[in-house]
Design a protein that fits this description.
By secondary structure, the protein is mainly alpha-helical. The protein contains ten helices and no strands. Helix 5 packs across helix 6 and helix 7 packs antiparallel against helix 8. The protein is elongated and about 75 Å long. It starts with 5 loop residues before the first helix and ends with a helix.
């Protein structure tokens, strides 16, 4: 699949994956791509089962899947070794292949939000009444800006990760750098 879809081959998460790479790439596309026919299935568990079946994973007689990392992914156990690698592929697919512009926008908003919050945390030690009033006005504007940025980040997060809050929570936990250039430098394979 990496030869057929060279965009995947640009990222180490796909190239260096140990395991059933092609099946997992298919699973990710079937389950997460908004253009997938499976997006019409409202039940997430059923959509996961269908994506796994179409990706070519073998089922046992109890309708479970034999691939241990796949079971862990389907059940949300992303901290287990094999599943962690799959999560990294999912995260890369959502943030760099499918929604790269939104992810860049999200990262820029996050950096700006952090700067605004740092300014808000500065204590006002002004003695002059006029300067104190100006500082309060500035603080009120910073609150408006931080609220706007927070709402924008929430909207972008929803657009990128759809209803997959687990994936986003794990992305934050993994402390992926918020600067798009840093992310690209860490994940692109040198040519």
């Amino acid at each position: 699949l990496l030869e057929a879809f060279p965009a995947f081959a640009r990222y180490k998460e796909f190239v260096y994956f140990q395991g059933e790479r092609n099946r997992f790439i298919r699973y990710i596309c079937y389950y997460y791509d908004p253009n997938s026919d499976l997006q019409n299935i409202p039940d997430n568990q059923e959509r996961k089962r269908q994506a796994a079946f179409l990706a070519g994973f073998e089922q046992d007689k109890n309708d479970g899947f034999l691939s241990s990392p796949l079971r862990d992914v389907m059940e949300g156990h992303f901290h287990r070794d094999g599943a962690r690698q799959v999560f990294e592929m999912i995260f890369t697919f959502l943030t760099r292949l499918l929604h790269a512009h939104r992810w860049t926008d999200y990262c820029a908003c996050m950096m700006e939000y952090e700067q605004v919050m740092a300014q808000r945390m500065q204590t006002n030690t002004e003695k002059d009444v006029n300067k104190k009033l100006a500082a309060f006005e500035k603080s009120a504007k910073l609150i408006q800006i931080s609220d706007f940025l927070f709402e924008r980040m929430e909207r972008l997060k929803k657009e990128i990760f759809q209803d997959n809050e687990t994936e986003f929570a794990l992305a934050e936990e993994a402390r992926y750098p918020s600067v798009p250039e840093t992310i690209a430098a860490q994940t692109l394979i040198p040519r």
